[in-house]
Amino acid sequence: MAARNARIHDPEIKEYFERKTVQGKQFGIVMNAIKYKLVQRMFAVVKRGTPFVQLRTS
User: Closest by alpha carbon to 33, among 3, 8, 2, 55?
Assistant: First the structure.
């Protein structure tokens, strides 16, 4: 559910999803990559001990 919502609402992940699907990647493979990206973000926030900051605004 988190990956699906991120694909719709997060501009960086939305761009990533569109780029990979245009390249011909399968839907499930791209969604697994998005899940991994979200897990990386979560661990980075915990490790730093600071809130998540969206760097890209486009």
Answer: 3
